[in-house]
Structures are given as structure tokens and as C-alpha cells.
Predict the structure.
Amino acid sequence: MVDPFRNRTVIACLMLPGLAVLAFALLVPLGFSVHFSLTDSAGFGAYQYVGLDNYRSIFTDDPVFWRSLRNVLLLIAVTVLVQNPIAFLLAAILARLSARVSRVLRTIYFVPAVLSLVIVARMWVDIFNPTFGALDKGLRAVGLDALAVSWLSDPRTALGAVIWIITWQGFGWALLFYYAGLMTVPRELEEAARVDGASWFQVYTRVVIPYLVPVISTVVVIDVISSMKQMELIYLTTAGAPGQLTQFLAVYLYQKAFVAGEYGYGNAISVLFVIISVTLTVLVQRVLRALPDEK
Amino acid sequence: MRRARTVAGMGAIHVGLVLFAFLQLFPLLWVFVYSLQRSGDLFGNDLLRLPDDPQWSNYARAWVDGRVVRYGLNSLIVVSAATAASTFLSFCMGYAIARMRWRLRRLAMGAITMGMVVPIHATLLPNFIWFGYFGLIDTRIGLVIPYVAFTLSFNTLVYAGHLRNLPVALEEAALVDGASWPRVLWSVVAPLATPATVTVAVMTFLACWNEFIMANTYLASDDLRTLPFSIIRFEGEYSSDYAVQFACMVIVAVPALALYLFFSRHIMAGATAGAVRE
Amino acid sequence: MMKRTAFLALALATALLPASRAAAQTKVTLKMGDNLPDRTNTWGAIVEQINKEFKAAHPGVEIVTESYLDQPYQQKVKIYATARQLPDVFKFWSFTSLLKPLIDGGFVAPLVRADFEGLGYLPGALDANTYGGKLYGIPVSTDLWVIYYNKKLFKEAGVERVPATVDELIALVPRFKARGIIPMTTDGKDAWPLSVTFDQLAWRISGDRTLPRQALERKVKFTDPVFVQAARELQRMVKSGLFQEDLMVSDYGAARNLFGQGKAAMYLMGSWELGLAAGNTFSAEFRASVDVFKFPTVTGGKGTIDDLFAWYGGNYVVSASSKNVALGRQYLLFYARRFPVLAWEKQAALPAQTVKPRPSDTPLARSILRIVAEARATSGTPALDLSTPRFKDDAENAVRELCSGLITPEAYVKKLDKAAEKAARK
């Protein structure tokens, strides 16, 4: 009998529509992007091929591109090294609470993650506002007038404030992933370690975390991907200000194309952006796969 | 002694948990409180003051001036269509990946994973020209297509993960009985995959419901704009009405929050599928 | 079964939508775009009025308008041009940095200049919209760079007269701050007001309005001492605390609101804000106390207070790819006749055409007319908009850095000069 699970017609019927959508909305546009990145197009009107000029400019004469990239890397670092450990800690605590309390708290912690980015951006712009914002009012109320600055436009705080908004909004996801992971750790493993006289801290460092390496790896990869994809929260808050201190790649390419009228150049950034995203993701995945896995 | 320390420690942990909950909710609370004040009250000195005389009329104005009905309906149409299409297509692909045996499976899997890694923002510029060829700019379908594309990869992986853990015997039995493939997928596999379907549908719906930059780029007509634009309407010229703007933010937040609260368990299940897949 | 029906219904709904939209378009629909989201007050209300009259005069014509704020709107137009979906008639700006690329791309339909010549346009207004000898847009407003102020707040702070020099202006800062009032606001996020102010300062210092243009033509350099001094003055203004604290992230609406809500004493903006004293966006108390004064001089500078920074920015153009180019041209003709009348009647804007002062004019409008009457010389388009879009973007980013205190005035003029050099080479 023919194996029905090898039926090519069925496979084609199942796969092709989806792949067609991906090709139409992702692959072909990327091809277009490569094409336009080799031109001096303004997006409209006639244009000329300029070879690799756009790329050369990016590499030799565009500090903003590199700052945008650096900011993205910084965001990844903050997400992985600050947000994730806090989320992990909180998830570990939640995992020990009663099911009902844990569920209520998890639900609350996740609320920012389901809000529209427009709401999140608008909300924080208003909270950070130096004239009527809640943060500065609060600081002044407790006598910390010196700390009441214009968070989103002061060069000392702007990048921090933007990263804060992004990590605040994304926190729920990190928490959820870790909580879900922690739920899979067999109780017997922990109990055995406790019987052997390990403290709670040791249980986590010696048993739970090694057990969860695959989960942590996956979350880190997701962090990398989602950090690269941040755009709206920057576009709707500082749009790169002050100067270009809070510029990020996704916003920068958009502005180059549609504000500065350098569509070709914007596409060159776009192409590099894709290459960097893919390379970085693959790289991180490789590195994490090399980690010892005790499962 | 040790017990006392533990109690104190537990107390500190509980305080920490509540503080954290407050931190996550405060911005929303602040916006809600001031949505009931007069716009000028925001400039007062109080950090958070409950209104003596709640201005519910702010909500009425936000509802009308924010074109909530029109934009909300637009969102509902576009997002429902995108959710239905994305769920259906990812179910098909997920099944082919999880169950079918074919040579290019790994390659297809790689392509789908790439679809998750490639930042959608890199397609904003070229899609403008590409979609323009088909007259898709400023149409609903022109928004549905990228919405499907950017949710498809993740959804496929969720389905594939779920289906892999289901017993294959039922399908085999049905096929041996001579059931057609569409019938097997619809009547045998789909019911078993319901948990994954709910997760996928809810998460896709929320992601598209909250999407902004593509709607901002691809839509022109006011009559087609989606719900987040209700808030944008209160920027600029109207932005003196902070209270009304805040009311509008609350209005826009409510459907997503309600949907989330109703389906939160499924979202958590989705996270599990995302984090704990091999 | 339920699910299946629901799914089918959705699929059908999406499939049918474009069709049903097309079916509704039995009449001629004129698509329009502008930067006036508020359709109930001042300028936006006037456009609605004109549209109403135009529809009455042309039965069967429907007008659909898309509006965004200034900067998002400019972005949108570029996006629509890219997608070849420009509105039939749209508001734009006469500048080389904005209009010229569209003309070069063949997106703008030329107009017949003779049609518009008898309509009372001020000298130079039509010329600003002329490229390669052809008229492409009709100017709508005369734009002056001025400072609005709140008379009541000035009085409460004990300020007797408006500042005549930048030093005097800066000296007011502590007096307003002591009362919890922001001395001055402007739209810093979009940066162009800062660039215009930089040009204005350079003129006040040098007494030569042509310097920025010369620098763009590479006859002089932006690194010349005049520009360094202008940059220093601008940075000094910002550093003195003159502007709102979040200057660099507050957009047009936010800046305007702080002034309109009586939270700020002054508002640095163009004369198109004449409508602040009319309409009902802000309180009657505010409307009664708003007035305007001339941009102050720089101590020791060669320019005078009556060197007026003025240009013809906003215009209306017809899309060349429109199916209704003829109708679009008719609309512009209609607009050119009605706008100056209505704009002055409602005191919403200073048209690019001659207006007759009336006894009922608001004090603000009278002050603006007086400033125009007393002008000794006018500048023309700001340097920012005299070159390529790329130059504009570079210049805006440079002035953002200057005003954020991230770079020195010397570094700023160097960046500007480099941008000008790049633009000139192209």
C-alpha cells in the first residue's frame, strides 16, 4: 500500500498556499529591497543605479547607522541580562505560590503585553512629560526635584527611558516563558536535591537552571529576534531624539526612506538589517546550542 | 529564629510582588483616573487624584471624535480575516511539517523559521512599490496579507509542536477506512488540535489588533483606518484635550484586555508551546 | 457548522469589500490631502466651507479629505508618491526640498499662470511656486517668523514691554520660571523651527539675508564666523531654559497646547497661527490676551528688528496622475478666490493675497499686519528648504544635536557645511 503520508499532492496543497503568502509578502519584497538598495531612488520618479555606493556610505560615513545598531545590541543586552533574570526570579516565586494567587499575579504582570503599542507609547510619553507627567510630579512630591528631568529628551536619560518602555512592555512575555518552563521541571528532581541538603539557591543553580537550559536558550533567541524588531515604541515616542541618541535600525531605515527621501539608501539599510538579524539569530542559536544540556 | 526570618522573607517577597503588580498597572491606572478629569486638571500638582466630579462626557467625546465605531469595525474586519486566514494556513503547514514525510521538509521548515526571524519592517519600503503593482495599497486586503505573513511562521511552529504530540493512529484508521484527506483533516485532526487553534487564533488576533506601523504605512483613507488611529486622532490639533485622549486610550485598551482576560489560559499555553519546543 | 459559516462570512466580507467601495463611486470623487486634522476650527473649517461651496457649484462632485499633522503628512505624501497614489488635489509646500522632487518625478500637473494673475497675489508669491518657468502650485499663506505672547502672563510676571533683543528675551526666563510658567515653547521635535530660528539669528547678526543661500551655492561657507555666532546664540537660548524642558520631543501640537493652555508665556511660530485668537480651541480668556511681537535683534548685530523673516510656504497642487486634473485645476481657481476672503473674515490665516484691514480684526491680526507694513526687507524661503531633501534631513538632525547640547556650535556649522557640500555636488 502507498504510504498516505507521502502523498505529494496533499503535501503541495497543504504547503503551497502558506508558502505563497510568505513568498509574496516577505521574499519578493526582500528582492525588491536589494534591487532598490543599488539605486539612488527617492521612492518616486526616475532613478539611477549607483552600484554599492549606498553600502559604502553606510560603512564609511554614517555614524547614525552604527549607533542604531549599537542601541539594538544594547537593548538585547538589557533584555537578556536584566529583564530576563528578573522575570526568571519572579516566575520562580510565582511557581511556588498557590495556583490562584499565581494566576492573578501572572495575569496582571502580562497586561502591558496585550496593550496596543500606540497606547503604551502615548502613556509613557505622558508619564515622562516634565510638565504634567506622573514621574516628575512624584519625584517632586518626595523632594527629589533634582531628579525630575525631561526623561525622553534629556541626553542622559533618553535611551534609558526608551529601553525602559520596551522592556516594561515585553516583561510579561519573558515571565510567561520562564513560568511555563519552570512548570516542566519535575518536582522529584528538586526534592531529591533538597533531601541531599541543598539550599533553595543551590537547587536553582545546580538543578533547575541546568534543566531549563533549552528553555532559556529559546527565550534568549526570541529576545534577540524581538529586540531587532522593535520599532513602533521608538517611532511613537522619541523617533530617535535627542540628536540621534535613541535611534534604532528599524526606525532609521523608515525615516531615511520616507523623511529624508532617500529610498535607495533606506533599502540598503533594510538589506543590512535583514542580514544582521539573521546572522545574529543564527549565531546566538549556535552559541547556545554549544552550552551543556543536562536533559 | 529561622522561622521568623522566613516569615519576614515571605513578607518582603509578597510586598515585592504587589509592588511589581503596581508597576505594571500604574500607567493604565493613571490614564484611567485622568480620563475622568477635566483636561486642565492634569496640570495640577496632584500625582493621582480621584475626580470629585467624574467627566464621563470625555468618553462620549472620545467615542465620537475618535471614530471608535468606524475604526473598530475596520479593525474587526481586517483582523478577523487575517486571523482566520493565518490560522487556517498555519494549520495546513503545521500538519504537513509534523506528519507528512517528504524530502524538502527540512528546507521548508528552515524557510518558515526564517519568516519569523526576518524583521517585518524590512518589508515596509519595498512592499510599497510591490503591493502598488497589484493596487493593494489603501485596501483592506493589502493589510490582511502582511498580517497573515508575519504571524504565519510562529503559528505554524505552534501547530507543528502540538500535532507532533498527538497519536497518529486515528488518522491512519480514518485513511484506511477510505476517508478523503480534507475529511480527515477537518473531522479528525482539527478537533484534536482545538487547543492549539484557540491559542493561535487568540495570539494572532491580539498581535494584529494592536498593529500600527503597517496600517500607518499602507492605509490612506480615513474610512479604512484601524482602531489604534483613534488615539492618533487626538494628537496634534486635538491634543489639548488630554482627558479625552486618555478616555480614548481606555476605550481602545478595553477590547484587547477583555479578550486577554477571557483567553489568558490559552495565551499561557501558547507561551509554553513557544518556549518549551525542542 | 457555526464556525464554518462564520469563517465563510469573513472570507466573503473581505473579498467583497473593495468591490462594494468601487460600486459606491458613481459620482466624481475628488480626493484631497492636507495638514489640517481639525476640521471644526479656523483653517480646517475654512477648507470645509470652501469644499461645501465647491460641491454646491459642481453637483455630482464629492470631496474626500485625508488629514494628518504637518510632519506625518509630509511623510505620507512621499509614501503616496512612492505608491503612485497621490490625492487629486493636495496641500504641499513650495520648497525645493519638498515640491521639486515631486515635479521632477512628473507627479504635479502644471497650472496656467495667467488664470491666477489677477487674483491679488503678493509680489513673489506665485514665483515661489514656479519651476522651470511653469507654475505648479498656488500659494495659500504669507508666512512670517514671529513670537506670540500671552499678555496676561506678561503682566502677571511684571514684564512691561516685549523684549527687543535676544539678551532681553533670555533675561525674562527666571521671571517666568519663578511663577511656574514655561517662558517659551516651539515645535522642537520636528526641528525645522530651530533651523528657521538659526537663519533668523544669522540675519540679525550679519544684516545680510542672502548668506544662507550663498552658503548653499558654496559662495561662502557655513563655517564662517557669522554662522558660528548664530549657532552660539541659538544654543544659548536653549541652554538658558527659555524653552519647554522636553523641547526636543514635543511636537507641534504639544508646543501649541502649552501656550494655548496658558502654561507658557511665549510661542515661537509662524504667522499661520493667527487663528490662535479666533476659533474656540482655547479659552476666551486666552484668545483675548494673545498678541505677537517681532523676533528680537542680537546685541551688536548689523540686522534690524524690521528685517522680516518671511516666505510663501504652503501651497495647493494638482496631481498629474489624477483622473480629474481639469476639475482639480477648477478647484484651485475656486480656492484662490475664496480662501483669502474667508481666511481673513475668520481671522484664521494671513493669505498670500492682499487683504483689507477691517475694524473688527483681532488685535493679533492687526499686530501681524503692522509687522508686515513695517518690514524693511524680507528673507524668502528658509535655507533648510532651499536645497535637497537630504540636505534638509541632515540640517534638521544637526540642529537637533546642537539644541540637545550634544555638539558644539563649531561642530554644528561643520556638519551643516558638509551637508551643503554634499548637496551641491549632487
